[in-house]
Amino acid sequence: MPSVRRIAEDAKTISIEFNVSEHVALAYLTLVSEGDMKADRIAEKLGISVEEAQSCVEVMVSKGMVIRSPSDGDVLQPLHPRMAITNLYKILEEENRLMLKQKRSVADSLSKRLSEPFENRPVSKR
Q1: What is the pTM of this model?
Q2: pLDDT surpasses 80 at 2
Q3: How far is CA 93 from CA 63, 89, 124, in A?
């Protein structure tokens, strides 16, 4: 079982690099190291409210970090870290792709709008 320090370091890395809260990262790492559990047990382990744990669960499910057990939908099963981290990366990659596409549109618009004043500016003769 990983040390508390190692889990905290990994949670911080996941949080910073993949834009999820430290509670979400800690909840996932708790499932990885301690096995399947329900949101109320995650809350107990992390010292957070059941509502906060449930919010973490929804994020983990939506980002492909965990699945709900087919036999009991309240029990959460972590995906293998290779899959979960890859899913986080792919989501981040898509968000960045869309952000860069929007910025490219702004850059194109600005360059077109500023071209006329640039071309019509007074030019000093040397």
Answers
A1: 0.82
A2: no
A3: 13, 6, 47
